[in-house]
Amino acid sequence: MEEARKAKQAAEGKAKASRQREEAARKQAEEARKKEKAAEEKAKASRQKEEAARKQTEEARKKEKAAEEKAKASYQKEEAARKQTEEARKKEKAAEEKAKASLQKEEAALRKEKEALARAKDLEAGAAEAIRQKEQLEQKANDALRNLALGIQPVVWPTIQELAEAKAKAEYREDKLHFAVCGPSGSGKSSMINALRGLKKNQPGAAKTGVVECTETLHRYPDPRKQMPYPRFVWYDVPGAGTSKIPGWQYFNQQGLYIFDFIILVYDMRFTQIDADILENCKRFKIPAFIVRAKADQHIHNMMLENEDLEYSQARDEFVNETQRDLKSNLREYGLWNEPDPLPLRIVSNGALYDFIKDSEERSIENETGVLLPAAERKGGKKMAQYIDEPALVHDLLKTAYERRYAGKQQTSGGSSAIVAAAAALSDGLSKLGMGATPKS
Fold first, then answer.
1. Domain range list for the chain
2. Residue 189 · residue 238 · CB < 8 Å
3. Family, per the entry (predicted)?
């Protein structure tokens, strides 16, 4: 019985547990149905909201479309009004252009009438000017003939083209100093150029020398020395004046002497009208010039041969005094000099000039190196007793030409770099040659 009772209790327990599980399942199912119903209601509310939003959007689109159509209609009205205005403007512009064209025709007709009157006046004035110019030319021609009859040579100024051609012929360069050596045939120009360049006549590059005129055309001689300031120098052997090929009064312009920085007028026995013409043109063109009496040694030697009682120093002093006295008289005669102006004369011999040039070069080298050259190796300084104006001539040539072309330009920011460099180099070279002050003759 006890077993049956226990079995019954166990069955009742299982049944109770089963009912409890079913009740729990039912409750879960009920809860699920509630959640599902809540979700459905939420979904329905969401759909209602979406529908309301869609209706609002649709309504907004309709309003927007209506506004667009209204704007389009307004634009079409404005476009039509604009076209009408544009058309009116075109008609107005066409009317203005037509009026303008009509006015231009009237102005053109009036202008042609004025031009015709002006041409008539110009022709009348031109005829009067031609008559006046003809009379002036006839007067100038008569004056020139009268002056020539009186021995007065014409004054001729070079044209811009002639100036350019003269520079091209001479191979003129702004960074160089150009020295023209001119004068009568046989006055010793070529020998002087050789001496000034530190050359003898038989050395390569020397100018051709001779008693008869050897120079028929302008010859250009760059200075061959490497030591500054010599590379800046270019020397020119100019054809002798007064030859059959070169009339005296045309000499200065035909040789293009107006382009040079410095002119050396060399004369030997006589100071002539041609020499005076050269100096007068130098003054006209503001070109520094020095008169050089060359071959002093030959003249002094001849004086000693003629008078055996003369010592060298006496002959030298007599020759210098006589040369200065004669030149003063000649310059006064041509109106080129008056007391108390310094006499623009340098008396030299080419042998002594060459000796001084070499001595200057060698002293410059000694100053730079600090080493004295052996006496046997020196080429210069052997004829110091014969110097007259050789040191003064060299100093005057270099210093005056430098001051004319380059002075102050090495401190100037303007100008070409070539000129500034040339100025600095030449200034330094002159200092090395001891040419900072005028030497005593």
1. 82-152, 160-432
2. yes
3. Belongs to the TRAFAC class dynamin-like GTPase superfamily. IRG family.
Calculate the CA 400 to chain-centre distance: 24
pLDDT tens track, the chain, 441 positions: 888 888 888 888 899 999 999 999 999 999 999 999 999 999 999 999 999 999 999 999 999 999 899 989 989 999 998 999 999 899 999 989 998 898 899 899 889 989 988 888 888 888 888 888 877 766 665 655 555 554 555 567 788 898 899 899 999 998 888 999 987 777 788 889 999 999 988 888 888 876 455 546 788 999 998 877 788 889 999 887 655 455 666 778 888 899 998 899 998 778 888 888 888 889 889 898 889 998 899 999 999 999 888 899 999 999 999 999 999 999 888 888 877 778 889 999 999 999 998 888 888 788 888 888 777 777 878 888 889 999 999 888 878 877 776 665 555 545 556 556 656 665 665 565 555 433 333
Q: Where does residue 28 rank: exposed (0-12), middle (13-18), buried (19+ CB within 10 A)?
A: exposed
Beta carbons within 10 angstroms of residue 228's beta carbon:
18
Tokens describing residue 128:
């009067």
Long-range residue pairs from 72-77, CB within 8 A, at least 24 positions apart, any chain: none
Tally the residues of the chain. 441
Q: Which residue has the tokens 């309504």?
A: 59
Contact indicator for 373, 361 with CB cutoff of 8 Å: no
* Alpha-carbon span 112 to 134, nearest angstrom: 32
Peptide bond into 229 cis (omega under 30): yes
Q: What b-and-e string marks burial along 244-258, b requiring 16 or more CB atoms within 10 Å of the CB?
A: eebebbebbbbbbbb
Best CATH choice for the domain 160-432 from the list 3.40.470.10, 3.40.630.10, 3.30.70.60, 3.40.50.300 = 3.40.50.300
Q: How remote is the C-alpha of 114 from its chain's centroid?
A: 46
Cα distance between residue 136 and residue 250, in whole Å: 23
- The secondary structure element, H or E, covering residue 237 is strand 233-237
Q: Which of 99, 258, 97 is nearest to 164 (CA)?
A: 258
pTM, 2 dp: 0.60
Let me know: does 233 contact 223? Beta carbons within 8 Å: yes
| Phi, psi for 291 (deg, rounded to 5) | -90, 130
Alpha-carbon span 246 to 278, nearest angstrom: 13
